[in-house]
Every structure is written in structure tokens, then in C-alpha cells.
Amino acid sequence: MTHPETPGGNLVIRVSNVHKSFKTVQAVRGIDLAIEAGRFVAILGPNGAGKTTLVELIEGIQQPDEGEILIMGKTWKGNENYLRQIIGLSLQETHFIDKLSVWETLRLFASFFGIGKERCEEVMQLIALEEKKRAWVVNLSGGQRQRLALGISLLNKPRILLLDEPTTGLDPNARREIWAILRKLKEQAQTSLILTTHYMEEAEQLCDSIVIIDQGKILKEGTLTALLGEVRDLPVKPVETRRITLDDLFISLTGRHLHD
Amino acid sequence: MTDRITNSQLYQLIATNFRELIREPGVLFWGTVFPILMSIGLGMAFTRKKDVVTIVAVAGENHLVWHPNDSASALLQFLDAGRSSIEKDKTGTFSRTITIADDKLGNTTFVFRSMEWQQAMVLLKRGSLNLILDEKSGALQYHFDPMNPEAQLTYLKLSRMFNSKGTVLAGSGTSVVPLTVSGTRYIDFLIPGLIAMGVMMSSMWGISYAIIERRSKKLLRRMVATPLKKSNFLLAQIAVRVLMNFVEAGLLFLVAFLLFHTTIQGNVAALFTLFLAGNFAFSGIAIFISCHTAKTEIGNGLINAFSMPMMVLSGVFFSYHNFPGWSIPAIQKFPLTMMADGMRSVFIEGAGFGEVAFPIVILTATGIVFFIAGMRFFKWH
Ligand SMILES: Nc1ncnc2c1ncn2[C@@H]1O[C@H](COP(=O)(O)OP(=O)(O)O)[C@@H](O)[C@H]1O
Ligand SMILES: [Mg+2]
């Protein structure tokens, strides 16, 4: 990973002291985040940690109670049109119109960006759904639907891609297919990615840096190697054949597993 | 060039709405076929046929069975004088049939059927008959619901027949015209109102409910995270609905024309413009109603709260002039009343632009105001 720019000089996303509460729940409690161009960042945390709330704040779908969010140095207020053009995203709960085909769905979302057929064809190829082109969304498998969601998020060749649990609920095969698409994207080095997950493998396999959050706060962040280096007092001493994981780190920080 | 059109937000949204519509058979049935079936049914039920057969129950002294051979019966003497035919059916009930000929209104056939009071009441409740004759020591008594216009008509025809004996029975073709409303059939009254109501209902369900349902399914949440323009999204909803409304109204009119020979007396262009204005009004209101809630139950309630009072009060099925006088000026300001009255005046009274300019302007303005307000307060999630 070569980053010729000085750290902080090339930030695509800067989140400063952001808070967000719902009636009785403090979902995000003072998070700071700085993400450099081209980086793949995983936000790792158990269910209810505040991952979705955090990314939706960054996506401008929710507004923070407190703190500031800058994307390409711009706030959401007053720059919505510009930012919507350069951001791609998929929500945690992905809902499209049931009785629309894959192709029709792509065309619909492409039109929102003023994008034509050719790019839809490209994306269809990228997400390997050509043979499902005419199938209705309602008849897709979970993995195919997630790939479609990913394809839609890529239509506008986004400079910033935000994926909320893109592989949750998928079987290992379907998960690997998604990972393969994201790796291709990384090779092209045009996109910065934030993805949330509670699968440590996903964070380990795909991302340059990992932000571990719990109860609305950042517990630790850094590269995989740096984070694993921090694991002290293992609750269970690893056998020689078993390597240390992020789960071990999470346990040593909170006493709980990442997911049950 | 075609690419520029097919790549546009509006085109894709309209195409999407159409696809959703035709791929959901239930929507097509309830939105298009059902209103037409309903109007055919109502039209059949309320359009007076050429020959009307009215059954009159006759009970005798003390509500017992009336004996069709009782020589003391005044009714019997009358019927015999009028050469009525006498029949006895399988159940042993006697009935006598008498027909009043009228070349303008069609013939009316009265079937006097002897039965016990209790049975007569059952048939009355079922709507098989609407009047019971009771003979008490030679005097006739009419029993019927004075609020039922059909029963009134039976009463008037019967009493007229009894009072003028020979003349009517001879079929001299005397005029019975005062008994009906200037020859206007109910179906002629009904069709314009049904078209207006169709526009209201299909806008409410096709726009309001569709938007609320999409919001509740979190479909809109994904769309808002794109450069999609709110106005395009809403206009696409309206465009598809207005087009469907044209199809529905056209079909309804075609059916009415084929079955009941309904015609448009007035200016067709004025009718068209008024129809469009009504569509604007209800589309705008539909957008406004759907702008906030994400709960389909609330959407249901809002739609019913808005449309039900108008269904009852706006005179779609029955004239609102039966309501208290003080309420009529208010009723006439409802959008459905404006549209239905305007359509009716073009259909039946031969009105043109002059007569319907006011409702056209008001309905269009209503639509614009509610659309802007709805767009202003519109929530994606
Ligand atoms: N719209 C909401 N209303 C009320 N509580 C919410 C809402 N969204 C999230 N929360 C709460 O905020 C906390 C964080 O949720 P979320 O951001 O979805 O976590 P994660 O994505 O990490 O599972 C949870 O306790 C959740 O119940
Ligand atoms: Mg989540």
C-alpha cells in the first residue's frame, strides 16, 4: 500500500465527534474517523454496535445530533447533488421492487444518475448476473440480490462506496463471490470503501484498516497486523495450529464475542 | 435521441410504475374491471325496464290469507271488472295479474298475490315486493315504507288505477309522466358520478397507497440515496395514474354506451378538460395524503377518512339535495361534488366550457396547491 500523500492531506471522509441518539438509545457516541482516498476500511462490531447508524450518517440518510461530517471536504448541507453523484451505497436491508427484472432495476437506478445502457451491461457482467437479466428481483436468491445491490451501488463508478453488511446472511460461496467483486474494485484503485460487518474474516480479507466499534464508540483502529499485535492475555491459550484473530482482540477488549 | 428519453428518470420511473401495475393482477382487477362491473350492476338494477312487473302482496281480514273467491272483496270485484287473469301456483297461492298499458313508460304488470301477513313481511324485507295491500271490511289499506321511492311509485300507480277504474284499465294511454323525473334514467345520473368517483378512488389507492406502501417497505429509502429528483418521482406516479384513469373512464363510458346508450349531450372538449382537472385535484391531494406516513394502516385510514364522506355526500349514487339545506353549500365545495356535478352537467344537460369553467379552475388550483404542499413535506423514510 503506497500512499504518497501525507496522511490527512487526502481525506475523502472525515467524521468528527459525531453523536446520534434515538429516543432512549445512544446509537453513536462521539466517533472520529478519517479515511484516505483509495483505502478499504472495515467497521467491525457486534449487532447493535451502531455500525448502520454511523454509515447512514456518513451517507446523509440520517443527520447527526452533534459533530461534523465532511465528504471530499464538503458537508451534506448544500452539496447534496454533488455528493450523491460520487457516492455509491447499499443499505443493510436491501429492498427493490419485487416484480421488476434485474435489468429493469439496473436501468431504473442508472436513470437516477443519468447513466445509460452500456454501463448497465458492464455492471451486469461485473456482478455476474447476466443469465438472471430477465428474472424478477423477487425470484433471486439472497446472494444474487446482494450482488444486484452491489451492482446498483457501482453504477455511477463511485469514488466512495459504502456497504452495510454486504454479506450478512449469505452462505460462504455467495460471500466469496461478493469478495471477489470487491477485490477487482480494489485493483482498479479508483474507489474508497467503507464496509460494515460482524464477520472478522471479511474485515481481515478485504480491508486495509479496521475500525472496531462497540456501543457507539471506537474501541480500536488500525491495520490487521497492528491490531493483532495488541492482543494480550488470551482468554484461551491458542494451540500452535490456531492463529490469533480479531475475535480474540474483541474478547480481550470487551469480554464478549463479535457474534454469537 | 431515443436513448436520451429512455435514460431519463421520468421515463424509467413511468415504465417502472406501468410494469408494477400490469404485473399485479389484483390491481388491474380492482382498479379497472371492478368499477366497470359495479356500474353495469348498478345500471341494470336501477334502470327501469320496458315492462315492469310489480308484485303486490294482498292479505285479507285480520292479516289472514285473502281468498280470491271472496265475493265480498272490493278488490276482487275490481280485478274481475278489469278482466285480470287468475292463476294458482304449485304452492297453492292464488295470484291475479293485471297490466296497465302505456306506450311512453312501458307496461306495468301488477301481480296480486294472496299471502299471510308474515310471509308478506319476509318478502318485503328481502326486497321482492315493496307494498302490501290489506283489505279490512271492504276498505283497502296500503302498507309501505314512505321513504322508499319504488314503493311510493307502486302506491301511486295502484291508487290511481283503483280510483279511475275503467279508464286506465281500458289502456287509453293516459299520461303517467308526473311519476318519473323528466324521463331521465338513473343510469344517466349514475355514469358521470361513477367516472368522477373512479378518478378519486383510483388516485387515492393508486398514488397514496402505492407511495405509502413503498415507503413502508423501505423502497424509497434506497432511492433517496441517489440524485433522483423528488418531483420526477411524484410526477411519474401521477402520470401513470392519470393515464390509467383515462383508460378506466373510457371503458366505463364504452360499456355505458353499448349497454344503456348513454351519450354526451354537451361539449366533449369541456368534458375532457374537466376530467383532467379532476385528475389533477385528486392526484395532488393523493400526494399530500401520502407525504408523511410510513404505516399502511394509517394510509388506509387517511384514504378512507378523505374519500368515504365524499362517496356518501357528493351525490355519486343519490342526489345530495336530500341532505339538509344548510349542508348543501358545503357539500357542493367538495372536489368530488364539483367534478361529478360538472361531468353530469356536460353529460346530461349539454353544458359547455362556460358552465364548467369554474370547477375546472378550482379543481386545477386544488391539485397544484396540494401537490406543492405534499412535495414540500414529502418524506422518503
Ligand atoms: N431508527 C431507530 N430507532 C430507534 N433505535 C434505533 C434506530 N436505529 C438504530 N437504533 C438503535 O441504535 C443502536 C445501534 O443500531 P445500529 O446502528 O443498527 O447497529 P448495528 O448496525 O451495528 O447493528 C441499536 O441499539 C438500535 O436498536
Ligand atoms: Mg446494522
What would your notes on this structure say?
The complex is a heterodimer of chains A (260) and B (381). The longest helix of chain A has 17 residues, at 172-188. Chain A is 34% helix and 24% strand. Chain A is an alpha/beta fold. In chain A, α3 crosses α4 (117-126). Chain A has a domain at 11-94 and 159-176 and 187-254: 3-Layer(aba) Sandwich (Rossmann fold), CATH 3.40.50. Chain B is an alpha/beta fold and 381 residues long. Helix content of chain B is 60%, strand content 9%. Chain B is built from 15 helices and 6 strands. Chain B has helices at residues 2-6, 9-22, 25-46, 74-81, 117-126, 149-163, 165-169, 186-216, 219-224, 230-260, 268-289, 296-313, 328-331, 335-347, 353-376, and strands spanning 52-59, 85-88, 94-100, 108-114, 132-136, 139-143. Chain B has a 6-stranded mixed sheet with strand order 2-3-4-1-5-6, sandwiched between helices. In chain B, a hairpin with a 5-residue loop joins β2 (85-88) and β3. In chain B, α3 runs parallel beside α10, α8 (186-216) runs antiparallel to α10 and α8 runs parallel beside α11. The longest helix of chain B has 31 residues, at 186-216. Mean pLDDT of chain B is 82; it is low at 166-183. The structure holds adenosine-5'-diphosphate and magnesium ion. Magnesium ion binds at residues 51-52, 92, 164-165 of chain A.
Mean pLDDT rating of chain A? 91
Q: Could you name the ranges of chain B where pLDDT drops below 50 across 5 or more consecutive residues?
A: 166-183
Distance between the termini of chain A: 33 Å
Q: Radius of gyration of chain A over alpha carbons?
A: 19 Å
For the biggest sheet of chain B, the summary is:
6 strands, mixed
Helical coverage of chain B, percent range: 55-70%
N to C succession of SSEs of chain A? EEEHEHEHHHEHEHEEHH
Strand content of chain B: 5-15%
Major sheet of chain A: order of its strands?
5-6-7-3-8-9
What's the SSE pattern of chain B? HHHEHEEEHEEHHHHHHHHHH
Shape of chain A: globular
β-strand number of chain A:
9
CATH architecture of the domain at 11-94 and 159-176 and 187-254 in chain A: 3-Layer(aba) Sandwich
Q: Biggest sheet of chain B: strands side by side, in what order?
A: 2-3-4-1-5-6
Total strand count of chain B, please?
Answer: 6
Which pair of chains forms the biggest interface, and how many residues does each contribute?
A-B, 29 and 26 residues
Rounded average pLDDT of chain B: 82
Q: How would you sum up the major sheet of chain A?
A: 6 strands, mixed
Regarding CATH, which class of the domain at 11-94 and 159-176 and 187-254 in chain A? Alpha Beta
- The count of helical stretches of chain B stands at 15
According to CATH, the fold-level topology of the domain at 11-94 and 159-176 and 187-254 in chain A is Rossmann fold
